[in-house]
Structures are given as structure tokens and as C-alpha cells.
Input
Amino acid sequence: MALLTLVALLLGFALTSKAGTTIWSGNFNAYPTVEAFNDWSWSDEVGEYQWYIYGTANTSEYLALDPSFKNPADTSETNGLRITIDPTSIWNGDSTMERTELIPQTTANLGTGELFYHFSISHPATNLPDSTVEHQICFFESHFTELKYGVSPNATHITWMVTEVDHYDVAFTPGTWFNFAYDINFSAGTVGLWASTGSDPLVQVVEAVPASTSTNSEDWHLGVLRLSNGGTPEDWYFSGVYIESGPITTSVGTGTGSGGSTTTSSGSSTITSTGTSSTVSSTSTTSSTTTAAGPTQTEYGQCGGTGYTGPTTCATPYTCSAVSPPYYYQVSESQFPF
Ligand SMILES: *[C@@H]1O[C@H](CO)[C@@H](O)[C@H](O)[C@H]1NC(C)=O
Ligand SMILES: *[C@@H]1O[C@H](CO)[C@@H](O)[C@H](O)[C@H]1NC(C)=O
Ligand SMILES: *[C@@H]1O[C@H](CO)[C@@H](O)[C@H](O)[C@H]1NC(C)=O
Output
């Protein structure tokens, strides 16, 4: 009897234990309805996510919450999030892209030491992604790491890229849950990848690849950017979103905590569906993801490209050069035609 209890306890512990420390939780339990995402604004930065990169229609056109939108192995969340992109998904007047993206809202430093960016992704057999156009998924603005869809080597696969170079890809089968963790060592300047499907524990599929790892803690885009195809809506499902310091939690669905209550940093707050917030972050941050006039990019910084929304003006005497158009433009010394 006592032994059985012990075994049960150990099993329970093994099934629910979490290895690292969650430094930011994107658990969707914090959002009773999708309208609650609207509670966030630049003047009232509440909740777990910044919500401003989407099209001209209402939030409910682009976001939906439902148990069927999460990985069933994820027991820490009631709902997953369905993200939709369609021809109305034009943000900031740029009709070359259709995008629906969430950004972490936190005062935690998401770019220090070794961190694991966890998320699970899936898509249903309806509103299928269009493999004839490039998609960027869960990307950093400098694109030092991201997933893509609709790109080489196999357009129907989810492809993991480091600085625009593919290192891993897997057939993006409808109805299958794909679990990922970007393994980013910001100190060493390397990125690796952990992956699994369904309820399987994450395994390392790519070890440390050198990259210019950096983030201002508000440029990781959870969601989808599609180069405009002028066409059909696409549905993408997300769950199990959180960032932890190591060691990595390999079991799926145990690390997300409950709606921010496991976050160790300040800046997480409870939001309500009525539009009032219970706590408000006191820091007033500006984001590089807004295309504001004024800021200039310094040498070797990014100054343009698909999905890039930062400064496009270069500090003197530099100019913006097409390194890998249309995806990446970088500041370099002026080039003269003679
Ligand atoms: C957004 O929702 C409001 C309230 O439900 C509605 O009155 C309005 O027409 C909607 N706007 C768009 C662009 O769908
Ligand atoms: C792409 O992947 C699909 C599904 O795994 C496979 O059937 C197809 O042969 C692949 N195409 C190429 C060009 O590798
Ligand atoms: C991250 O990189 C630093 C610097 O190379 C290294 O000392 C550290 O051990 C790495 N962290 C892990 C967890 O491997």
C-alpha cells in the first residue's frame, strides 16, 4: 500500500515535473475570451502578450480559443489558440504580407544566458496553408532563428532555419501536433532545436548552430506571416507557449504553468474580458516592431526585408544593402558606382 502510494507519487512527479524555471508564460488560460487580448495597448501593457500585429478586422477574425486548438497532451491549458490569416490581414499598410502575430509582454530579459522557447503548432485539414508562398512562423525580427513553411528544401514541410539557412524539416501533416523548443544560448551565440510530435517528449534534433542571437525581449513573433497570396484564409493552432531557463523540460504540456502564475518575473498581470486591468506594467516601453520615423539602424544591423518592421533608415554614412532580398537587408558602407 505504502509502496503503491510511493510509486504513484513518483509517477505523478515524473509526469508533471518541470526541469527549468519559466521566465515568461504564454499560457492561454490568462485569456477567458479572445476579446481579452484587446486589453493590451501601448498605454496599458497588460497580460502576457502584446497584440497589435494584425489586420483591419476585429480580433475575433484572427484569434479564437478552444480546447480543440491545443495539443491534447497539454493538460496545463484549457484552450489552444487558433490564429487565422486571410486577405484582410494587412498590418501597418504593407500589403505584401499577411500577418497575425503575438509578442511576449514581460519585463523579464528574454535574451540572456541559455533559454528555451517552447511552443506547439498544428493545423487542421481545412483552411490549409498555401505551400506556394513563404510563411514565417515564430520568428525573431533579425531572423536568427525561425520556422518557415512554403520554402526549400520542401515547401510542404515545416523548416527550421538559422539565419535563413535550413537545418531541419518535417512534413507538416494536418492534425498532427509538432512540439518545438528553440534552444538559444545567448552567451555563446548558438541556437539548437528540440522537437517531437504528439505527446512524445522533446528530443534534441539539431545542436548548437552559431548565430547572432539577440532579442530586445519584444521581437519574438508568435504567429504567422505569409507573403501575400491574395487568397484563401489559413488556420494555425498554437499551445504550450513558454520560455524557460535550463535545463530543458522535455515533457510536453507541463511547462506552461497556469496563466502566468508560474512566472518568476514581474510584468505579468491578470487581465479581464471587460477591458479593465487589475495591474498595469509601470514601465513604458517602445517597441522596435513599430515602424516609427526617427530611429536609424547602425552598421551591420538589419534595415529591411520580409517580416522586418524596425528602422529602415541607416546612420550616416551607411546605406541599406540587399543581402538576401527580399528577406534581409543590412546596413553597410555606401557603395559608389565607380
Ligand atoms: C467589430 O466588432 C464590433 C462589435 O461586435 C462591431 O460593431 C464592428 O462592426 C466590428 N468591426 C469589424 C470591422 O468587423
Ligand atoms: C516533400 O515531402 C513530401 C511529404 O513528406 C514528400 O511526399 C515529397 O516527396 C517531398 N518532396 C521533395 C521534393 O522532397
Ligand atoms: C552557453 O554558452 C556559454 C558560453 O560559451 C557556456 O559557458 C555555457 O556553458 C553555455 N550554456 C549551456 C547551458 O550550455
Observations:
- The chain has a mean pLDDT of 81.
- The longest strand covers residues 234-245.
